[in-house]
Design a protein that fits this description.
The complex is a heterodimer of chains A (367) and B (660). Chain A has 17 helices and no strands. Chain A is mostly helical and 367 residues long. Chain A is elongated. Chain B folds into four domains: 162 residues, no CATH class; 239 residues, no CATH class; 128 residues, no CATH class; 99 residues. Chain B is built from 21 helices and ten strands. In chain B, strands 2, 3, 4, 5, 6 and 7 form a six-stranded antiparallel beta sheet that branches. Chain B has a four-stranded antiparallel beta sheet with strand order 1-10-9-8. The longest helix of chain B is centred in the middle third of the chain and has 33 residues. The chains are: A mainly alpha (367), B alpha+beta (660). At the A-B interface, α1, α2, α3, α4 and α5 of A face α1, α2, α6, α8 and α18 of B.
């Protein structure tokens, strides 16, 4: 209601601005005219002549010329104002009283949203909320960190959260800051390297490799760093080196290490002979575990892709990869659902839609 | 409530503008004082409402109200306060609101300070001003409304384009708009004169302060924009002949011509019809500039608006106003009384030459800017008209202009004595020749034309001084009398000197920067030392830093002269997470008027950095010149004889008259 009250006041002020001069009538007012200007110019000439800026003859000439203009202006004066034109004034008053509010309210009614209150941010974040979403919590930590960018503990808390959410670039930055402000440790270096690998879609980049090497230099036993160094060697095509690294890891590892199976699978992939484990049973168990682990891993990767696409559906390639992944996993329903989601997501962009449809056709999921 | 009140205030401003554009004209037609005075009160009320609307948008940006689309798209809660405010006009909708606010400001100023105008002229001027305003209010409300809301506001905004997060945004657009929009007043005066069919020397006197204000702001706005581009875009260029830059240069050239032709009209009652045309052209070119930038016709760093609907709307406004005003000109110009004649060798003649050269220069820029667009529309062929075209056309036009420049003020009105003027300029010529010889002896490399250009610039500067020396009789008369005359000299004469000298100073800067600029592009590792123009630069370290809404890699350079560290420079590369964009923050070190300029390229994982280092001799003069020009404008504006008629009783005029 206050809003409409304010609107009414504003409209009244606007109407008043139009009516005020109409009400004041045609009292004679200070009115400029050409003659004033020319008289002023004449006095200027006198001033210039008296300070010696122009010679007396020049001054005389200029005086003659301006006087001529002055006479011309005086001979041809602007028509003096006639009396009040009451009919026109009434018309103007009506336009102001009726037309102005009608136009203003009409146009505002079409364009405005009078029902919406203001939402200043400060007020919104103060409202108590028991079920704060993860996004809000992250936003709060971020805000804290923007204000205290040197709080190492904050960075180390938020870094793995970013990694879990798939915000890998942010994770890399957070891990980096955590190293800067908490000091170096092999774990932190290795975590940073892992985030870099994830950000590069699984490729162990030169930058990431440097981090793993630093981690190993700090502590030769750092498991994660060693594993990724092996992976780096594998990606470089140095399978033998990779096998050596992983075999050394397995030899030193305690028998119940949770990562044993993962490294063994990796070793098997590069064709290295399996290391003699403590017992056949353990190896077999580990092998079983590696199967489930691997499929779990694949599932989690697919899930992550799906979440990412839900947030940002512009990525046609991503959608196609997701659909393909569901088909490979034998989940035809999900593949169908994903393809229809994809169509919806890119429906606004005809170029992408066409690209998507072609891709889906190639996958045999037409229509 | 703030958002909706701001929105409603804008709608009311449109309503008032519609009344202001019709009622006063009817009042002038039937000579009813009250109806004509409606123009004044509505212009002031319009200004108040638009100001309220603009203040509302600023408040929304500052309080990060993300229920407003404009705020979501261009703000971020973590942005520093300054950029929250400047971000208001760092986007299409907000900048258009700034545009109309300034339009209303000028209208309001005419209403408040226009006491010295004949009442019917004032009514017409304000009505024409309201036509323009109505068109732009409609444009804003219908196609670029900054007050649109969203019912479910997001928690965070999308941040302002990082390139625009700079102090330059606080100064450059408002200045430029004050200049662009300021020309609307001379346009309105011209149209009012055409409607009334009355034009004489007094008209020029009334228009001149407004044109001068617009010109001062446009000059500083362009110079500021150029400096901003120089330090923020990271490759040390200060003028790119970018269409958007040209769009601001064209009104400047036309405005400069207008300023000079107004002098002729005021003093000699001549060149009247031409002056009217220039007033129309100056504002038309401002409108064209707005169209080019706002329609998205051009793709450049400035085109942050891309919406065909907007383009068509502005094109419509452009056609109506330019077409309408030119048609009116064609119909009415012949009925205006022609002014007096004059000899070619005279002050008037010199000013006509100035006008011819400036308008031709303006025309070449116009062709160079619009021809590629026209060609693309007609044939689909894309060509780019760059610096070579402008250097070949614009340069040769400016050389005669600069040679003639010192002669102008030395020639007398009506009939001048060219030989006498030339004799008095001998000193300037001698200084120019000495300068030329010195430059040739001291420098090597660069263009052979460069020393000649430096000589020309010196000629212009000394020529401007000679004018003052002659007028006050320094060296000729006893010092006391000369000092007395200097005090008595109108401030506009000092203004002329400053502005003309400013042109020469800017030219020196331009020539030195383009001819003897040295650059050194290399990859450096911490500890490396490289040399440029006698300075040693040592890269000390490259460290990451966290800023308010970005993080950056900052490189620390020590500047060595003779093995001694004289300064450190900190160029950096900033990464803005919200828009995942990178900006390059160049580091500048001024030594006198020269500058060292370092900007960072890519940073390799092994810690080596690609750096671009420039030494730019006397580069600061490029912007110091325009600042002097603007100062000259301010002096001229403060001249008693040019002052805008502040509300004061008619008595003072009579007092002056008595001195006759």
């Amino acid at each position: 209601m206050t809003l409409w009250f304010v609107f009414a006041l504003m409209t009244a002020a606007a109407i008043f601005a139009v009516l005020w001069p109409l009400g004041r009538g045609s009292r004679a007012q200070a009115d400029g005219s050409e003659t004033v200007v020319y008289r002023d110019q004449l006095s200027e000439i006198d001033r210039d002549a008296s300070t010696g800026l122009i010679n007396p003859p020049e001054a005389a000439l200029a005086r003659v010329e301006i006087s001529r203009r002055l006479l011309a202006a005086a001979d041809n004066p602007r028509e003096p104002p006639s009396g009040a034109n009451l009919r026109l004034r009434r018309l103007a008053a009506i336009i102001a009283l009726v037309g102005l509010p009608v136009v203003a309210i009409g146009l505002y009614g079409v364009l405005g949203s009078p029902g919406l209150p203001d939402f200043p941010l400060a007020q919104r974040s103060r409202t108590p909320d028991g079920t704060q979403s993860l996004g809000n919590l992250i936003a709060q930590v971020e805000q804290h960190l923007e204000k205290n960018p040197t709080d190492g503990r904050g960075w180390s808390v938020i870094a793995p959260v970013y990694a879990r959410l798939g915000r890998m670039d942010d994770a890399v930055r957070a891990f980096r800051n955590s190293i800067t402000y908490n000091g170096e440790s092999s774990e932190r270096r290795a975590d940073l390297g892992e985030a870099l690998v994830a950000a590069a879609n699984g490729v162990v980049t030169a930058e990431a490799k440097t981090e793993f090497e630093r981690a190993v230099a700090l502590s030769a036993e750092e498991v994660k760093a060693n594993y990724f160094l092996g992976l780096a060697a594998e990606q470089d095509g140095r399978s033998a080196d990779a096998a050596t690294i992983w075999r050394t890891m397995l030899e030193k590892a305690p028998p119940n290490a949770p990562w044993r199976s993962l490294v063994q699978t990796a070793l098997a992939r590069v064709g290295g002979s399996p290391v003699q484990g403590p017992s056949r049973e353990a190896v077999a168990a580990a092998k079983d575990m590696s199967e489930t682990d691997r499929s779990a891993m694949i599932h989690s990767m697919v899930e992550r892709l799906a979440t990412r696409l839900k947030q940002n559906g512009d990525d046609v390639e991503g959608w196609l990869r997701l659909v393909r992944a569901y088909m490979v996993l034998g989940d035809a329903d999900k593949a169908k659902a994903a393809s229809s989601d994809a169509r919806q997501a890119v429906a606004r962009d005809p170029e992408r839609l066409q690209q998507l449809n072609e891709g889906l056709k190639n996958l045999g999921l037409d229509g | 409530m703030i958002a909706e009140s701001g929105h409603y205030a804008l709608v009311l401003a449109l309503g008032l503008a519609l009344i202001q554009s019709t009622v006063p004209i009817l009042g002038a037609r039937w000579r009813d004082v009250a109806l004509m005075n409606v123009a004044r009160s509505t212009a002031i009320a319009q200004l108040l409402f638009v100001a309220a609307s603009f203040a509302a948008l600023v408040t929304l940006h500052v309080s990060s109200d993300f229920s407003v689309v404009n705020v979501v798209e261009n703000s971020h809660s973590m942005k520093p306060l300054l950029y929250k405010i400047t971000g208001v006009w760092g986007n299409h909708e907000g900048s258009m609101l700034l545009w109309v606010s300034i339009l209303a400001l000028f209208g309001g100023l005419v209403a408040i300070f226009g006491n010295n105008l004949p009442i019917s002229l004032r009514a017409h001027v304000l009505a024409v001003q309201a036509w323009i305003a109505s068109a732009f209010y409609l444009f804003i409300l219908l196609t670029s409304n900054p007050f649109l809301r969203i019912a479910n506001p997001p928690m965070e905004g999308r941040d302002l384009n990082p390139v625009l997060q700079d102090i330059g945004l606080a100064v450059h657009p408002p200045m430029l708009y004050l200049g662009y929009v300021g020309f609307s007043i001379s346009f309105s005066f011209a149209i009012a004169a055409l409607i009334e069919g009355r034009i004489d020397a007094a008209w020029a006197r009334w228009v001149r302060p407004w044109t001068l204000i617009a010109w001062i702001f446009l000059t500083t706005g362009i110079a500021m924009g150029s400096y901003w581009a120089y330090y923020s875009l990271g490759w040390g260029g200060w003028w790119f002949w970018d269409p958007v830059e040209n769009a601001s240069l064209m009104p400047w050239l036309a405005g400069t011509a207008l300023l000079h032709s107004l002098v002729v009209m005021e003093k000699r009652n001549a060149l009247k019809v031409w002056t009217i045309l220039l007033s129309i052209l100056a504002f038309s070119l401002s409108l064209l500039g707005t169209f080019l930038v706002r329609s998205g016709v051009l793709t450049s760093v400035h085109a942050f608006a891309n919406d065909p609907r907007r383009g068509v709307f502005i094109l419509l406004i452009l056609c109506v106003f330019i077409g309408g005003s030119l048609s009116l000109y064609v119909f009415r110009a012949s009925s205006l009384k022609q002014g007096g004649l004059f000899a070619p060798i005279s002050r008037e003649g010199a000013l006509v030459l100035n006008n011819l050269l400036l308008t031709t220069a303006c025309a070449t820029v116009f062709v160079g800017t619009l021809y590629p667009l026209a060609l693309e529309v007609m044939t689909g062929e894309k060509i780019s008209v760059g610096a070579p075209f402008f250097n070949l056309t614009f340069g040769p036009l400016f050389v005669p202009l600069l040679i003639a420049l010192p002669f102008g003020p030395l020639l007398a009105w009506k009939r001048g004595d060219l030989l006498g003027a030339a004799q008095r300029l001998t000193v300037a010529g001698v200084v120019a020749l000495i300068g030329l010889a010195l430059v040739m002896a001291w420098t090597f490399g660069g263009s052979t034309l460069a020393p000649l250009a430096v000589g020309l610039a010196l000629f212009v500067i000394v020529g401007a001084l000679v004018d003052i020396v002659e007028r006050i009789g320094l060296f000729r008369l006893p010092l006391g009398i000369a000092a007395g005359r200097a005090r008595g000299l109108p401030r506009s004469a000092w203004g002329t000197m400053l502005a003309h000298a400013g042109v020469g100073i800017a030219l020196i800067g331009i020539v030195c920067e383009t001819s003897w600029n040295s650059e050194n592009i290399r990859t450096m590792k911490p500890g490396d030392v490289t040399n440029i123009a006698g300075y040693g630069l040592k890269l000390e370290s490259v460290t990451p830093r966290q800023g308010p809404n970005y993080r950056e890699m900052a490189a620390k350079f020590s500047v060595l002269v003779g093995g001694r560290v004289i300064a450190t420079m900190l160029p950096s590369k900033r990464n803005f997470t919200t828009r995942s964009a990178t900006t390059t923050e160049a580091a500048l070190l001024s030594r006198g008027a020269s500058q060292l300029y370092i900007s960072l390229g890519d940073i390799a994982p092994d810690g080596s950095v690609a750096v671009r280092i420039y030494h730019k001799p006397l580069v600061l003069l490029i912007w110091f010149g325009p600042v002097l020009m603007a100062l000259g404008g301010v002096l001229s504006l403060s001249d008693r004889r040019l002052r805008v008629g502040a509300p004061k009783p008619a008595k003072s005029y009579r007092g002056l008259q008595a001195a006759e």
